Amino acid sequence: MEKPKPPKGYLHSFTYAAHGIAHFITHEHNAKSHVITTILVIVLGIYVDLTRTEWIIVLLSCGLMLCAEAFNTAIERVVDISSPSYHELAKQAKDVAAGAVLILAIFEAIIGGIIFIPHIISVVTSW
After folding, report:
1. Is 43 within the bounds of a domain?
2. Taking the model in full, what pTM does it have?
3. pLDDT in tens, the chain (127 residues)
4. Could you tell me the sign of the dihedral formed by the alpha carbons of 44, 47, 48, 51, in that order?
5. Is 69 annotated in the active site?
6. Would residue 91 count as lying in a domain?
7. Which long-range contacts (CB under 8 A, 24 or more apart) does 39-42 make?
């Protein structure tokens, strides 16, 4: 018995998502910064030989940061469309979304320090 093919719409949803990711990375300055940071963190993780658990935490953290920034961008776009002129509630919505990204960034930095500082100290002291 043949496996049924997914509906055309299902495949199209991946195309739409890919277009969204590409637009996000190519047009958003913060997205570019997060992608570059993610690449540097991965390279550093390889260099210091992270454990499997550390890799899971680091990759999950990087993914969460990129998702938070993407949600922030989406919220900003929707607010801009729905409130083209200044409105205090629109400003608050955008500020809260940006604040959520900042909160996550602070916790990501703490997590990064907890994971990477002992490895970096170990590498430096072994020289």
Report:
1. yes
2. 0.85
3. 677 665 567 788 899 999 999 999 999 999 999 999 999 999 999 999 999 999 999 999 999 999 999 999 999 999 999 998 999 999 999 999 999 999 999 999 999 999 999 999 999 998 8
4. positive
5. yes
6. yes
7. 41/112
